[in-house]
Amino acid sequence: MTGVVRGGARPPSPPRRAGGTAKAWQGRLQGRTAAGLEAYTHSLTQDRAYQLDDLQGSRAHAQMLRAIGVLAAAELRAIEQGLERIRSELAEDRFPFAAADEDIHMAVERRLTELVGTPAAKLHTGRSRNDQVALDLRLHARRGQVDLAQRVVAVQVVLLHRAREHRRTLLPGYTHLQRAQPTTLAHHLLAYVEMLQRDVERLLDAHRRTDVSPLGAGALGATTLPIDREAVARRLGFAQITANSLDAVADRDFLLETVAACVLCSGHCSRLAEEMVIWSTSEFGFVELPDAWATGSSLMPQKKNPDVFELLRARAGRVLGDLVACGTVVKGLPLSYNRDLQEVTPPYLDALTVTGSGLEMLREVLAAVRFVPERMREAAADPQLLATDVAEHLVRKGVPFREAHAIVGRAVRAALHRGVTLAELDLASWQRLHPAAEADLLDLFDPEGALRRRELPGGPGPRTVGRALQRADLLVRRNARQLELLRGRLPDR
User: Is 176 assigned a catalytic role?
Assistant: First the structure.
């Protein structure tokens, strides 16, 4: 093998075409590429998100080429040294990008040629930009999925902490945004822990399908050279290699799965943000935002606005749009690679960024908000929240549920007509509605007692919530350990 740059010799200049830097396809196409085409087709801006992943893949590929005899030991050393210098330049934002760099792959190859000369021309042996970009995206997505899942767990931790603080804080539960039945703030917050748990599990599930190396698929039909795909996959920490070269370069399912997980996760954040917006109104008064996490009005001096929650709510729609964009790009593409796939990357990156920043904001603001237990208790004391308890009490007396439901409905109407609460109806009024009503019915209008009657698994009873807090703690700890193990398996870039 020849071509190693030694003794500080100046590497040969890359070949040039008329009017610009040489392209990888210069043997087939002659003349200068139109400036408009270059501007329209370049992907360098988005590629920079995974530029270090590209170097990581190139390093593993070069080591494999050395193992099968394509590169000499000295050539491998030159390439590795050149890639390390490029890594430093990129990390320190001093990489000399050229106007004609079409994407990160060609920018790195051009720079490597400037640094080490001929060995750089051998690095692309046995691979295509098609399988190279598929590899880069999988490397990026594996890390992005773990990062995002860890942010989800961080929000779970805060929710669990606040739930422990408010284990006995009464709260009205709602359906249709109408008071429905009594619950506790702890039970309410733990519902979001469950939602976020599904988000962690979805990201881990997507990670399993992302953890597959496509390198070696080439442009679409692999290569005639005896490359070692498994060796590259092992070096990069992949669990397996792709089974079909056509699918390997055409597949972006792993990106769509990641974005879909972001849609659901950001949707859960949006639902919680919506409740915080409502609960912080004067009409509810369940939550007070610290001044540091609120905004004011340029006109109305009294205003204190929950802008952070409103933006969380809105940006969930942006992430949903990212999924629509990704799905629209891939829905009608023939096999195998098509340049359309380039357009999946920006919405994928946007979904990761928006969801991740939203989770971080939610973590910080949830730790800071002040819940107002007295306002919650006042609302939960509404006797109508116990109407179902009365109906079920009558069921225990042998009254069919539908009949009991109608009896209590008439009682509610009678109380409203008299201008009293349901708890203020006397026993005679209940007995006129049904003779099964006895004095013990009047003892039902106690929200704390109502919670003690709800000790079914998954319910808001005090003992059940205590067990739920323990379960949530175990879930969060398990998540953290699993994600730390996954992160440890990802090789350093």
Answer: yes
Catalytic member of 176, 282, 298, 417:
176
Tell me the residue type at 78. A
Q: Determine contact, residues 116/81, Cβ cutoff 8 Å.
A: yes
Please write the tens of the pLDDT for every residue from 214-245. 999 999 999 999 999 999 999 999 999 999 99
What whole-number distance in Å separates Cα of residue 105 and Cα of residue 82? 14
**Given its phi and psi angles, is residue 281 left (phi above 0), alpha (psi -120 to 50 degrees) or beta?**
beta
User: The domain containing residue 443 runs over which residues?
Assistant: 382-452
Does some domain include residue 459?
Answer: no
Q: Give the residue from 125, 158, 185 where a domain finishes.
A: 125
10 within domain boundaries? no
Active site residue 393: no
Instruction: Report yes or no on whether pTM surpasses 0.90.
Output: yes
**Which residue among the candidates 128, 297, 336, 417 is catalytic per the annotation?**
297
Enter the tokens of residue 438: 């006895």
Reported as a single tens digit per residue, the pLDDT across 275-311 is 999 999 999 999 999 999 999 999 999 999 999 999 9
Q: pLDDT for 153-200, tens place per residue?
A: 999 999 999 999 999 999 999 999 999 999 999 999 999 999 999 999
**pLDDT at residue 20 tops 60:** no
Q: Say yes or no: 253 and 221 in one domain.
A: yes
Beta-bridge partners for 36: none
For residue 283, tell me if it sits in a domain. yes
Q: Are residues 54 and 145 in the same domain?
A: no
What DSSP string runs through 382-397?
-GGGGHHHHHHHHHHT
Q: What's the token pair of residue 118?
A: 């001929």
Residues 149, 313: Cα–Cα separation, whole Å = 20
